[in-house]
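Changelog-adjacent note: as of this version, every example in the card shows the full chain rather than a window. The one below runs 316 residues end to end.
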Amino acid sequence: MPKYIRPTGCMSAISLETGKRRWLSPVDIITLLFCGWILIYILIGNARVLDFGLHFASYLSIFTGVLLSAVLERWWEGREGWFYTVFRLLRALYPVLLFGYFYSSNYAFNRVLIPQWQDPFFMKIDQAIFGYLPSMEWGVRHSHWAISELFHGAYFCYYPMIAGLPLYLYLKDRKAFMELIFVLTFSFYIFYLMYSILPTIGGRYIPEAHELTKVYRAGPFTHIMALIYNQSQHWGGAFPSSHVGITIVLTIAGLRFTRRMGYVFVVISFFLSLSIAYCHYHWFIDAVGGIIVGIAAYYLGLWVYQKMLPVEAHQQ
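Full-length structure tokens:
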């Protein structure tokens, strides 16, 4: 029976006295696969890719950087000091630092396969369900500043949740952290892959709704979101809603690992799922799709993670 040695770096592959040791973590592997696929995809469809050179170089640099950082982690294993501590922290959290670029870059190649925006199809679904478009009506009918703050605040909570729960588990429970960061990364990549082949804008497809997302009104959360959307040049990535889906992923993880935080996430998830239409960002059906894909991605990611762990790790 090989002896288990506690890894010094929290995102390292499990260390075992077996003569062989993985130098790529499960997160490294899926990140390399994701970047590799995007590189091939945009290379094949380069005629329809915006700023092809920039994004090809960026994804290639990330691919190379993941490999290099894995090699350095192997070389520097066991070394102490602030520099190595920071390096191992960055190795642990690097996917979180990349999610923003992966999402925003999607606009450049999300119409390689399907050149036209597919929003009219999703608009018809909302119209069939409600008899109107929630993304055009809810925020206008119920525009009181307190209601606006409630929903824009719920939508904003998505951002600190992405970093907050992983950082909390990093400090409290490294095993839970390693599992969460893999499942979170896996789930994000599922959404990004879907966005790359299904071009949808969401509520902002309608010019009037687009303008409403940029109006400074109500309180601080509404102002912050208006600021973000005034600065954002991103188009696409609407169905299914990753805002909703990733919040569901974090909520399930929160309920498993830190129950009190999980209960708070349940409340946020409810209001956030409604907020994406209220704030004019998405079609309502995007939320439904986000819930379904989020739940599926969490449990599929968990299954994949368990399969990727060394056999010995399951025996600890």
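Structural remarks: Strands lie at 4-5, 15-16.
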